[in-house]
Design goal:
alpha/beta; 8% strand
Amino acid sequence: NKPILCCCSFAVLLGTILYSISFAFSKSSKRDMLRSENIILVIGDQIAEGKSNQKNGYVGGLGFHFYNQAKEGASLGIFLNDKTSWIPQQLIDFQNKNKYITPKFIIANGGIEDYYFKDLPLGKFGEEITTDIQAENLDKKTALGGFEYLLYMMKKFYPNSLKYFLLSHKMSFRGRTGRYKLPDIVNFQTAKNRNGYTLDILFNQIRERCKLYGVNIIDIHKDAPINSVTNAFIGANSFIKTYIFGHPNYIHRDGIRVTESGYKKGYLPFVAKALDTYFSIRFTDIIMENKIREQNKEKEIQKKKAEERRKKLEEERKKFEAKKKIVSELRYLL
């Protein structure tokens, strides 16, 4: 009976050890799996591109692998037959070049260029597009026609991917322009373009159409705390205001482009929250992990600097003691 009892005890002990190891590493292993398997594809305009934060845009801080195809100046509709700055073309080019990559998430944005900088016609929606022929017949030189073409192509290329459309922050363009016979500040929410619509009108149409195609909205425009309608989040002109008195610097002085701190405060938390639903390990937890890792890294750097200063002071002390000893010996001899 003793051999049998020993074997049973050993089996229980081995099982306990294996379970403990599995429990200890399951969380980190699951995170590694998520990072390697869940790819994010980003398409859109300058807000998505994120030149101010090394083209990480509003997804880089999640700690996951992503492809950022967004480009400054890109629009939903085609402007002057130029497809190089057309957002649907970003999706088409990615799919053509990466046949064997299927993104888990697709996050698109756009509309700023259509409304203001390119003054494209608004267009209109009809019935849901279900065939290539219907899609090709869309008026893609309008904002809504190009947008619906994008929705159809996302569904066609990646039917099983989770799709999102991000609506950018409330904006006021802060640059000299004679187009509207208005002051230097143009409120995109209230100022109509040459085709008679505001950015709010365009975004409301986009919200409604996304429901039909099962595309989720990440509503920075409505929910985020940052905007450029007031001066509260705009980078200050004065160095003293910004760096001495801590004036917020979340949006560039043009009112359009977002700074690195602006992405962290006004975009990344909302993108993370939108993706939280699909994971037992939350994206917001991963953001916090990354923040703690950065803080620990900074602590290590400061610790290393402190150690270097201590060594330098110790060397200076030893040199002083040696000189002091030599002086004492000389005095004794005299």
